[in-house]
Every structure is written in C-alpha cells, then in structure tokens.
Amino acid sequence: MDRSITSAFLSIVGVKFLLISLDFLSSPLLTRFLGEGYGDYALLMSIFAIYMIFVSTGVGDGVRKYVAEERDRPHWDRHVVGFYLRLALLLAAVGCLLLALAARTGFIQNHLGTSYQTYFYLLSLLVFTSQFREYTRRTLMGFGLERYSEPLLFLDKVLFIGVGVGLAYLGYGVPGVLIGHMTGAVTTAVIGLATIHREVSLSTALFDIPSREFPRRELFAFNGLSIVLILFLTSLYQIDVVMLGFIGSTQETGYYRIALTIAEFLWIVPLALQNTLLHSTSNIWANNDRDRINSLAARITRYTLLFTILLAIGLAALAPAALPVIYPADYIASYVPILLLLPGCVGFALARPILAIGQGKGDLRKLIVATGAAAVVNVTLNGLLIPQFGMHGAATATSVSYGLMFVFHLWSARQIGFYPAADARIPRALAVGAAAAVPIFLLTRLLGDAAVPLIVLELPVSLLVVPPFGAVVFLVLSILFGAVDTDEIADLLETAPDPIANLGSNLQQSVRSVSTGAQLLLIVAGIGFLVAGIALAASGAGIGDTITGPDGDEIDGETNPDEPNTEGSGETDDGGNNGTNESDGDGSADTDSGEDSTADSGNGTDDTGNGADDSDGGNGDSSPFGDDSVFDGDGGNDSESGDTDSDNDTASDNGTDSDNETNSDDGDNGTDGDTDTGNDSDSDGGDDDAWYE
C-alpha cells in the first residue's frame, strides 16, 4: 500500500480500535441497565440499520466515490457535494415521514407491540440526524480528510455513551438510549458540515444547479445499485437478529446480539480497509492501472487473512474468561454462538476489502450477484435452523453464509478483472493458525482461573498474558512458514507516518544484512519455541491445581531442600560423594555409579523426583531430542560444578520438565550434589497430556 492509502487506513483503523473499546464498555452497561429491554433495543437497531440502507447508503457511498475521482470538469467537487446534499435532504425527509406515519397509524403497535410506538417516533427523528452524520463523514473521506471524519465518529460514540447510557442508568430505558444516539448524530453533523464548508461553500453547492453535462444518470445508477448491494450485505448480519427476535425469546436475542458483537471484533481491520479502499482505488481504476490493483488486492487479502485468524484464535481461547468479566454471568451462554460464528467471520473479513475494490471501479452488478447469493443462503438457512435450534441455528446459518461471501467474491473479482487470491498464500496462513493455536490454547489452560484483583473486579491473568504471547508466536510462525516476509513488514512500516517509518527503514537495513545462517537459527529457535510451549503444558496442570505423584501422594511444592522429603515426592542427594546412595523419602535408593559422577553428567545417574533411576549410561542423553536437544543449553555435555540454579520450570538435560524445581549443586571433588524439590515433575515420555476443556 502506498503512503496515502496507508495513512488513510491508519487514521480509520486507529479509531476503529477505540470504537471497539467503547463498545466493550457500553454494551455491558446497557445489558445491565436495560435488562430484558436490551433484546428490544437490539431488534430495534437491526430494523433501523436495514431501513437506513434505503435512506443513506446511496448518498454516503456516492459522495465518497465521486468526490475522490477529481474529474476534469469545472467545479466538479462543488457539484458532487451539492447533488448529494440535495438528495440527502429529500431522502431524510421521506424516511422520517414514513416512520412517523407507521407509528401514527397503528401499524407498529399491531406487529411489534404498543411500547414500540414511542420507539418509532424517536427513530423517525434519528433518521434525519443520522443521515447528515453519515453524509458529512463520507464527504470528508472523499476529500481525503480521514483525520477529521474518523474523530467525528469517535465523538459520536462518546456522546452516545455519556447521554444514552447515562439516561438508561437513570431509568429512561430504550427511549433514553435513542436520545443518546440523536445527541451524538446532531453534534457530529454540525461539526462535519462546518468542516466541509471550509473545502466547498455549502450554500453555493446547495443552490448551484450544474449543467446538463453533469453525469446525473451515472450518479443515480450508482446510488440505486449501491442500495441493492448494501441491502444484501446488511441482511447478512442483521436478518438473523430480526428473525430470532420474532421467533425466539427476548433473552435469547440479547445473548445472540452479544455473540455477534464479540465475533465481529474480527472485522476491525477489514472494515477500516473497506472504508479506505472504495475511494482510494477509484482513481487507480480511472487510470486503468490493473497491475497496481492486483498487487494491492493480493497483499491486503493475505494480511487480512493472517490478522483475522490470529484474532479468531484469541477470541476462541479467551472468550470464556472475558465474558463473565464484561457481561452479567448468564451471558456465558453466548460462548457457543461465538465459536460457531468465528469461522464465517474470517471469510466475511476477507470479502470486505475485495468488495470495496470492486465498488471503487463502479461495476456493482457482479458484486450484487455474489452478495445476493450469500444473502439468499443466509435467509434460507436461518429460516430452517432458527425454529429448531434457536440462537445456535442462527449462528450456524450466518457463519455458513459469511464464509460463502469470500468464495462468491473471489468469483466476482475475477469477473471484474482483478485477482485477490493470487498471492494470498492461504495454505500457509492456515498452517500458521493451526500451529499457533496449540501454544495459545495451552497457555490459556495453564493459567486457568488465576486472576489479578482490581478495585471492582478480578481480571483473569490470561487476558493480560495470552494476547501479547499469541501475537509474538503468530508473527514468528508467519515468518517461518513463509506466510509473510520480513522485508514486507519493513516496507509496510516505511509507508506509515514517522516515527514508525524510521523503524521500518532500520528493519529494512537489518533484514538485508541478515545471513542465511542467522535465518536458519531463527527457524530453529521458532520451532524450539513451539516445542517448548507444548512441553510446558504437557502436564495439563493449571495454576493453583493440586498435583499428585504416581503413588497418589499430594505434592505441595513446599519441600525444604535441606531436609528429606517424607511425602515421596522429593529427593535428597548427599552433596556429591563418589558413588554414594541417594536417599529418597519413599525409601528407594538412587545409586550414582562411576568415578566422579555428577548429577547432570552424561555418564552418571540423574536425579528424579520420585526415587526412580534415570541413568544416561554414558551413551547419550535419554531425552527423545538427542544430544543436541533444545533443552540442552551446553550441547549435551552437561557436567557442572559449583553451580547453583534456582528456577521455576527448569528443563534438565534428560528431557525432564520440572515445575517449581530447585537444583542446588555443590561442587565436591568434581561431584555435583543435587537437592530437588519437584512439584509436578514430568518426563517427555509421559502420557498425561491435557487439552483445553
């Protein structure tokens, strides 16, 4: 991506992350303050989103696309802004009137209930305010002013939380939340119109009617096709909520809405790309630069796939810990729908940038066919599965249709003339995901229910530790598997604003200087890192779990290294007398044979946590990894003298992993005496592997 597209993307994605954070703040509060009314609110907003397609979609997409094209016509910008401003006024007035009439005539009360009459009166006002919020934001994006358009979106969300959530807390229910939406929309619309006025005089644009040469027919055609396209698109993630609201219970609708909110976290980056690419690629298409389009589409598809796979793994692993913290306890019921939705959300995430690039060309018919096919599948499957399986049926139906979006839009892209999967490296990305999922899930399992006490809640340690750990593992594996190249990372950083660009330049120089041997070392280190992660969690023990030895005795990990362990789990060495017996608390003896034998040498007896005899016999390491095992820091010859090692989770040279183990080596005539207190000492040949449950 070039600097202009990257800068626009970074402006949008930064705000997207903030908005998602605010959603995670507001939605739990709304579920608590609205109670069962949250299901009514979710249904109401889904209806409103579908309704606004007819009012706002053509205006927003049209003004964004055509302002960005900068055609060689006199006053092109002003005429486009004025054309869509007049259209926005007309459609907002009609949309507002229709909703008010529906509430006035009793249509709403007859179909949804009497409480919805007030809701729809307020929605009619929200139509007008939302129309101009979107018009101003999309116009600013067309001018390339994302640095203004996206902060306005953030301001809208902040005002909604402050007013809407505040009124819900005071007991005003759903009407109070709708008033919060209107407050944010009015404020941002006024600020946005004032910002546009600095680029184009709005009064002149509103009343300056262009000549017959102005391509009104083209703009109207784009509007109409955009409405059809976005109608199909929106139905994919709204029709399931509407159908579940009519068929299922209010409580189930609320659970499902939360599942969608969390699963759609995967769309942060794809949505930012979609918002950036429509107007950013319009000029590229106008210049008929297909090579640049193909290169851009392929790289974006690959990056999107990798990022969404990483997020999907993280959400699947951490949702059980996060849900009880964010939402009321009963919302843990949303977890299964989340798991069902995640695979499809990855597919939909890949389809979004492809869709935007196709929109940038203006050839919407093929996009409509592909999206419409997925929408038909969605409605059909939801109609079949919701009556039988409720929210789980809705999640399954929606996930299937989401996944088909990627398949269908690969076809539409080829028909339009670009190839997003040409360098997507999909098999490698899937391999990275499969490999990264193992240590991520195992670490989550290992941390268990451990939590950090805060002022008002206990925050699970896994929410703090797993995300950065998973990101590092995933990045390393992506490079090792060839899903992404290091020079690509450097190039991407260089296109960003300073000081990130300087970091990219430095990385680029470092990459060029890296030798083949260093790259091989990186591969070995990465594989060793993965193996170590698997071995670490092989015991299946979480923090705080009670561990028992082979004889059934509990191991509390508190054995005094200076005293014999009478619980049968520790071992006392005598300090290193040549060939002496080592007495264990369970009565067994460990004999170190050989002159000047050491506890860690290749020809002596190794120590054990339960009196078993682990002998290397001088013929090599007993580890299944051999003499050059990644567990051997000194190449397989582990003779030590006078060395004191006190670690948690120390791996010995024979492949034995000991958690909370203290090795105390006192050199005596070249002999090491080891006193080990083992808590959960498992060899690599153990059979107590555990998986995430």
TrEMBL record:
The chain crosses the membrane at residues 7-29, 41-63, 83-103, 152-172, 219-239, 254-273, 303-326, 332-355, 367-385, 391-408, 429-447, 459-484, 520-543. It is a multi-pass membrane protein. It comes from the Archaea. This is Polysaccharide biosynthesis protein. InterPro entries: Poly_Biosynth_Transport, Polysacc_synth. It comes from Natronococcus jeotgali DSM 18795. GO terms for cellular component: plasma membrane. Residues 599-612 have a biased composition (Low complexity). Residues 547-693 are annotated as: Disordered. Keywords: Cell membrane, Membrane, Transmembrane, Transmembrane helix. Residues 551-574, 583-598, 629-693 have a biased composition (Acidic residues). It is found in: Cell membrane. Signal peptide: none annotated.
